[in-house]
Amino acid sequence: MSCDYFIDSHCHLHDEEFFAPHVRDELVERALSNNVKKMILIGTDYEDSFYARDFAISRDEKRETLFWSYGVHPDGIKKERKEPDFHIEKPIAIGEVGLDYHYLDEVDNPEFVVFEQKKLFEEMIALAEKYDLPMIFHVREAFDDFFEIIDKHPNIRGVVHSFTDNKKNLKKSLERGFYIGVNGLATYSTLPLPPLDKILLETDAPFLAPSAHRGEQNESAYIPEIAEWLAGKINLPVEEVMKKTTENCFELFRFDSVEK
After folding, report:
1. Per mean pLDDT, which range of 34-43, 98-107, 140-149, 229-238 is the poorest?
2. CA–CA separation, 150 vs 222, rounded Å?
3. Helix and strand tally (H, E) in the chain?
4. Best exposed site among 64, 127, 196, 200 by fewest CB in 10 Å?
């Protein structure tokens, strides 16, 4: 395992809603030229997940650079759901999945939304257990329910993507062995930081660009800028941040076990 490059553990470069076909190819090449050698394309619903798979396969048949995850985002509770077919290739993870209560005040029946999100989350956990895959969690303003559900599944491993909560819930996440996704949002906020041995670097591209590009479309090529910010914040060489966060990604996602 080489650790002399960066990994973007969470991006949506395959998403045609934001990126035209020729732009997607340019984004991958730009990331590679900035020493971001692996990228995980994150699924947000059934169709999007398999689109991420097909994009990865079409541009990286040997599966050395582009990987994909299968998941239904909590805002997908009204979308059609069916058992995913992984006969072509198993995803690297189940995600992004979880709970998001941020918009409950804007819906007519918040109790129903909470019920359906919990039901969906349990379905995604069952998939992770069935295929022995790590999970990529999306949790916003819902940590109490998140911990209540996840504590029923002690063997689940995963990463809390784009953590935006308090020190108490960060500590609880770490106590459960989860990694924490750190992205451009951290570069202009006062979010609590986990220890380096629990950090995965991510962009969430096209969202959450780091401070130097705030307001612009994010991309995987900006991972080194996030790493440089983090290195300054914790007073370590950027090379050490690169090495450790890459090791963390290998530990969680087990890239070498992907069926090619």
Report:
1. 98-107
2. 32
3. 7, 8
4. 64
Distance of alpha carbon 59 from alpha carbon 81, whole angstroms: 27
Query: In which residue are the tokens 């048949």 written?
Result: 61
Contact status, residue 81 vs residue 120, Cβ threshold 8 Å: yes
- Domain ranges for the chain: 6-257
* 3-state secondary structure at position 91: coil
pTM over 0.85: yes
Query: Quick one: 6-257 is in which CATH superfamily?
Result: Metal-dependent hydrolases (3.20.20.140)
Give the pLDDT band of residue 258 (cuts 50, 70, 90). Answer: low
Comparing 66-75, 145-154, 213-222, 250-259, the range with the smallest average pLDDT is: 250-259
Q: Which residues of 76-85 are buried (b: 16+ CB within 10 A; e: fewer)?
A: bbeeeeeebe
Q: Which two tokens stand for residue 17?
A: 């809603």
